[in-house]
Amino acid sequence: MNTNFKKFHKLLENSNNILLVTPPAPNHDLIASSIVFYNFLKNQKKEVTLLNNSFQNNNGSLSFLTQPKKEDFISDLDGTRDFLLIFNTKYNKIINIATDKKEDETIIRLTPEKGTIDPRDFSLAPADFKYDLVIIIGAPTLETLGEIYQKNTDLFFEIPKVNINNDSENDDYGQVNLVDLTAASTTEIIGELFFEQYPNDINKENVQALLTGIISATNSFQKPNTTPQTMILASKLIKAKADQSEIIRHLYKTKPLSFLKLWGRAMARLNWDDSRKFIWSLLSTEDFLKSRADQNMVPSVLEELQKNYTKGRIFGIFYSQDSENTSGYFSIDNSRALNAIAEEYNIKPSNNILKIKFKNKNLIKAEKDFLTALNKNL
Fold it and tell me: pTM to 2 decimals?
């Protein structure tokens, strides 16, 4: 890993405008990793942009961490590349250029110095992208970035990439791959990078975010993915003034009892389709009544699923509105399947999220209906 840390340092030195990207609906580990990198790069006097991908929507319980500026978020990559209209003026100079914008067209008026313009003297070419480095956190493959990658393949192939990941399915697609399959989290990899390569940037805001990601990814060091190296790094972060008690309070003790009861009921009915990496659960009207929870908590239940089952690619909660009608809340990172299923149910996705109403279907019928649609479109 040391060699890759040095490669990263060299690549960063030659970069000034950096794009930070995570997969859709990032968990707390990936959000904390993004916050650390944002703060670090800003301190390095770099221009930094975060590609949203639901970052802000999943960030409620991490609001105690130092947050990126809102103006540094973007939701898509539209407008990140110019195109050049190039004129060869060796034999005929252009003495005036004017534009005329109409409802459905833009007209460029050119005045040549002499005669007419030879069409062979001009051409259209793409300019360089505004970014000179992409840092991708938590995506084992480019395809797991979903629609963002599918719509902008040129950007991801033309610009140097740093791949930060701890997934066994990672395919080392970056110019620099900070990949450690033994690490419990991406924040653990970044923490090791900082202690080795950037000790002067080990400040209060960064160590707090790093320890937050590690605690979240290991369920406060209780998951089997916790290694001695994880514990050693956590100890270093605490010595560097990370406040473990504050992190625990915000991650675990701020959830209302009604949510914890609803989450427990969702876990009791958990289903897993390994071939499709689909994880889902069902919540009945009785579940909401007995937990004293309301249906506004369903997105948070889905978020907990995503945080605790990072191998999943599709997540869903089916929940009863009444005895005859069911709703579903789904996160799908496969853009083709997402759009196909959305079209089938005549709805529009939002940030890889689908909200489906199964009219005149109880929980079991709604589950069967969605699995049929998923099998057809995945």
Answer: 0.69
Instruction: Report the number of distinct structural domains present in the chain.
Output: 3
Among 251, 267, 301, the domain boundary falls at 251
pLDDT at residue 15, as a whole number: 95
pLDDT computed for residue 60 by the predictor: 63
Predicted confidence (pLDDT) at residue 80 exceeds the cutoff of 80? no
- Secondary structure letter of residue 130 according to DSSP: S
- Kindly write down the DSSP assignment for every residue of 133-170, as one continuous string: EEEEES-SSGGGGTHHHHH-HHHHHHS-EEEEE--TT-
Q: What is the CATH number of the domain that holds 344?
A: 3.10.310.30
| Residues 45 and 154 reside in one and the same domain | yes
Three-state SS string over 173-214 comes to CCCEEEECCCCCCHHHHHHHHHHHHCHHHCCHHHHHHHHHHH
CA dist 29 and 358 (Å) reads 33
SS3 239: helix
Helix axes 186-197, 204-218, angle to 10 degrees: 150
371 and 271, same structural domain?
yes
- What average pLDDT does range 272-299 have in this prediction? 90
d(C-alpha 357, C-alpha 348), whole Å: 12
Q: What six digits make up the tokens of 214?
A: 């590690």
CA dihedral 314, 352, 282, 298 (to 10 degrees): 140
| pLDDT 10s digits, 48-58 | 999 875 565 55
Do 39 and 51 fall within a single domain? yes
Strands 176-179 and 161-165: parallel
Q: CA 137 → CA 21, 24, 64, 112, 374, distances in Å?
A: 6, 11, 21, 50, 27
**Same domain membership, residue 166 and residue 39:** yes
Final residue of a structural domain among 216, 251, 286:
251
| Residues 231, 10: Cα–Cα separation, whole Å | 29
Read off the CATH number of the domain in which 230 is found.
Answer: 3.90.1640.10
Query: How, if at all, do strands 314-320 and 326-332 pair?
Result: antiparallel
The answer on 229 and 209 residing in a single domain is yes
